[in-house]
Input
Amino acid sequence: MKTILVCNWKMNPPTWKEAKKLFDETKKAAQKARDVSVIVAPPSVYLRELAKVSRAIPLAVQHARAEEGGAHTGEISLAQAADTKATYAIVGHAESRARGTTNADTNAQILAALALKMAPILCVGESARSIQGEYFDVVRAQVKEALANVPQNRLATIMIAYEPVWAIGAPKPMQPRDMHEMGIFIRKTIVQGWGEIGHAVTILYGGAVDSTNAATMRDEGDVRGFLVGRASAEPSKIKALIQSLA
Output
């Protein structure tokens, strides 16, 4: 089973020339690692041009609205992203939630993406933890509300990326045993609402992932792969990360 690596470039790099170079380096590393399946999520301004040179590596939009159009200055729609040939959509990333994206928004985005035959990558995760364990309630609500009205037979299309906000940009990721516990909890939440198909949902981890810790998190943390930010935006780091997972 291949390790999935979603490369979220965020607002990087600053020029098309650099974006093309980063993509080529990522593609070259991915072609040498047959056990790793790479998805690239560049800034939306690069999607169409990358689609022209990308057949082996699918593309994802980092954020897009569910509405087909409207007075949303500076935004793009999922329909527009699909028209660029993006086949995945990141939904509910912590940075999008910080700008106001709600659980209801993530639900609308997931339903719109599925209607467009795009595969959603739903991001969930708490901003902080305490010994009371209320973060489980936060994640449960994010999962259940985002997946509301999703047909049972479409659940396998959706990947869920658990990204604890407190670990994003941190020097080290959370412990694999804690990720393993959260993976079980997320699957249990889905099984309770949608049945045994919940066991087949792909779970990723995001937060301070690099070549020094990814393999351990995959092997001990009950994850199929990773949503990677800063390490995916530098050719040397993404090459090292892919090699560590191969």
Notes: The chain has a mean pLDDT of 95. The beta strands are 3-8, 36-41, 60-61, 88-91, 119-124, 159-162, 202-205, 225-228. The domain at 3-245 is CATH 3.20.20.70 (TIM Barrel).
